[in-house]
Amino acid sequence: MRRTPLIGMLAGVALTLAACGGDGDGNGGGNAGGGLTGRGPITIATGKDRSGNMQKMIDAWNAAHPQEKVRVIELPDEPNDQRQQMIQNATTRSDAYTVLNLDVVWTAEFAANRWLVELPEDKLDLKALLPATVPTGQYRGRLYAMPLNSDAGLLYYRTDLLKKAGVAGPPKTWAEMWAACDKVRALPEGRNVDCFLTEVGKTEGLTVSTAEAVASAGGTIVDASGKPAVTSPQARAGVEFLVGAMKDGRMPRAALTLDGEGGRRHFQAGKLLFHRQWPYQYELANADDGSSKVAGKFAVAPIPGQNGPGTANLGGHNYAISAFAKNKATALDFIRYMADAKQQKADSLATGKAPTVAALYDDPEMVKKFPFLPTLKTAIETAKPRPAAVRYGDVTAAIQGAVYDALGGRATSDKALADLQTRLAQLATS
Q: Which residues contact 270 (CB under 8 A, 6 or more apart)?
C-alpha cells in the first residue's frame, strides 16, 4: 500500500457484500488458535521486498530458529496480482504459503471464505496498536490478521517552489492547491512541473484515489446502512475533482498509466509540485545518494479537501496464517516476532513504513527522522477504510472501471456513477 498498501469511505461498517460469508468453525474459523499446531519451516507470501529489510529481519529470525526457518515468496508488485495469486493458492488448498502479507481490505474476503485461521487475541498485543488499525484485521468480531504496517495518504509538496512563488504553506483545500499551482507555473522554474498527481491508473490505486476524493468532498461510496451512495452530490464532487484535474491539465495524462512507483519516480525527478502518496516515499525522496532531485526540498501535509483538510484512506498490511499451511505454531510465533515494537521500529527506521504500534509515533528517534509522524498519526486516526467486502475483487473492479472511463472521457461523471451505483447494488444482493 502503501499499497496498500483501495472503496469507500466508511469506518468500521462492512458492506452487505460481506454478509454472505461463512462463520463458525471450519478451516477459517473455530476457536481462536485451535488449529495453530505444528513446528518447522514456513514461508511468507508478500509483495516485493524492495528495501531488503524484510529479508534482514527474517535472517535474524532464521539464525535464532534454525529448525523453523522462514522463506520469502515474493509476489508481483501490483496488489491485484498479489491477491489473485493468494486466492489461487487458497482455492487449491495448497500449503505453499504459510503467512500471508495481506492488504488490510482483503481480511473479510479471506476470512469469510475460510482461507485463514483465527488468531488468538490473548497471545497478540492488540492494546499496543493504534486503535484504528485493529478492525482491519478482524472479521465479524474475530481476529484473523495482525496489523503490521499502517498507512494513510499524505500530500507531498515542494517547499522550494512554493516559497519562490510566495505561497505561505501547503494547501488545505483543492482550490488553494490549484491557486498555488498557477503561481508556481508562472515561474521559470515551474514551467515544466506538473501540478498534481494521485494514482488514477486502472489499478487498486484508483480505488484509493476515488475513496479519498469522495470522502474529502463529504461523501461516501457506501452509506452507514451498507448501501451504495455514489450518486450523491458529494460523491459526484469527489469524482469531478479527479476528472477535472485530468481535463484541465493539472494532472498529467501520463497519470493514467503510472502506478505508485511511477509516481514516486516522477516526484523524485523534480517534475511534480503536489503528490498524494503513502509514507514510504519520504525516506526515498530524501535520499542523498543522487537518486532524488528533491531531497531537502519538500515537506508533507494532510491531503486537501473540497472545503478544508481532506480525509485520507486507511491502508496498511496485516499478517495472517493460511488455513491450509503446515507448522502454524511457528507461524504465530513469527508473526509475534515481526509485530513486536522493537522490530516495527527497526523496520520503520530502515524503510519509512508506518508502524502500527502507537508508542512509536511519539518515539524521539522516530520523530527526529520522520518529522511528519504527528501528521501521519492524525491522518491514520481520522482516515476512512474501504468497506469489508467478501467479493472485494468485483467491487474494486467496478469502481476502477467506472471512474477510469470518466477520467478518459469515455463517460460523463454522472453516467459513470449511475452505472457504478447499479453495479454495486447488484453485488450487494448477489
A: 193, 293, 294
HSE, side-chain direction, 13 A CA sphere, residue 3: 20
Total residue count of the chain as it appears in this document: 430
- All CATH 3.40.190.10 domain ranges of the chain, comma separated, are 16-152+314-382, 154-301
pLDDT in tens, 92-144: 999 999 999 999 999 999 999 999 999 999 999 999 999 999 999 999 999 99
Question: Would you list the DSSP string of 58-113?
Answer: HHHHHHH-TTS-EEEEEPPSSHHHHHHHHHHHHHTT--S-SEEEEEGGGHHHHHHT
End-to-end Cα distance, the chain: 29
| Integer CA distances (angstroms), 49 to 57, 120, 174, 315, in order | 11, 28, 34, 18
Tell the CATH topology of 16-152+314-382.
D-Maltodextrin-Binding Protein; domain 2 (3.40.190)
Backbone Cα Rg of the chain: 21
Distance CA 133, CA 350 (A): 21
Rounded to two decimals, what is the model's pTM?
0.86
Closest CA to 107 of 315, 336, 339: 315
H-only helix segments in 202-312: 204-216, 233-247, 260-268, 281-285
Residue 8 C-alpha cell reads as 469507500
Closest of 102, 173, 151 to residue 281, by C-alpha: 151
Give Cβ neighbours of residue 61 (< 8 Å, ≥ 6 apart): 69, 70, 334, 337
Contacts of 242 (CB under 8 A, 6+ apart): 198, 200, 209, 210, 213, 251, 403, 406, 407
Q: Is 408 helix (H, G, I), strand (E, B) or coil?
A: coil
The three-state secondary structure class of 208 is: helix
- From 359, 355, 238, select the one nearest 306 (Cα to Cα): 238
Residue 385 near residue 11 (C-beta atoms within 8 A):
yes
Topology (CATH) of 154-301: D-Maltodextrin-Binding Protein; domain 2 (3.40.190)
Q: Do 253 and 176 contact (CB within 8 A), yes or no?
A: no
Find all residues with CB under 8 Å of 28, minimum gap 6, and list them.
Answer: 22, 110, 111, 112, 113, 114, 115, 116, 117, 118, 144, 323
pLDDT at 388: 64
Q: CB under 8 Å to 224, separation ≥6 — which residues?
A: 10, 13
The amino acid at residue 234 is: Q
